Amino acid sequence: MTKDTSALPPAQALSLASLVTPTEAGIASRVLAKTTTGNVTLFAFDAGQGLAEHTSPFDALVMVLEGALVLTIGGTPVSALPGTVVLMPGGVPHALDAAQATRMMLIMLREPRAA
To answer: Is a pLDDT exceeding 80 seen at residue 99?
Structure first.
């Protein structure tokens, strides 16, 4: 997975599609903003790509911008299309599969879930 962590220029309207370049048969990402309390990352997945099941201690929001994803959250598949948002709760295993080329935004909320 390629990562570009260069900061965005301030006070400019930028095309999301121009901020991350899809990689053939791969995954590309770019951190758009990062603070101690969270980060925003733009991803581009080529068709057939995904992320294996893993767990994060933090809640995250996935916003599909184009394409289509199937997120598996706690064993439950969730189909996500452009214009949808999905909450992935912290501490719950999740995975992601892109059946077609997809761009998504991940918003990580870096505050552990209350026990």
So the answer is: yes
Distance CA 51, CA 98 (A): 9
> DSSP secondary-structure letter at 20?
S
Angle ∠(12,18,20) on CA atoms, nearest 5: 115
pTM: 0.86
DSSP state string for 24-67: TTSEEEEEEEEETTEEEEEEEE-TT-EEEEE--SEEEEEEEEES
Candidates 2.60.120.10, 2.60.120.650, 2.40.128.110, 3.30.1050.10; CATH matching 2-9+17-112: 2.60.120.10
Whether 36 shows a pLDDT value over 80: the answer reads yes
Given this model, what pLDDT does residue 4 score? Answer: 46
Q: What is the C-alpha to C-alpha distance for residues 78 and 69, in angstroms, rounded to an integer?
A: 8
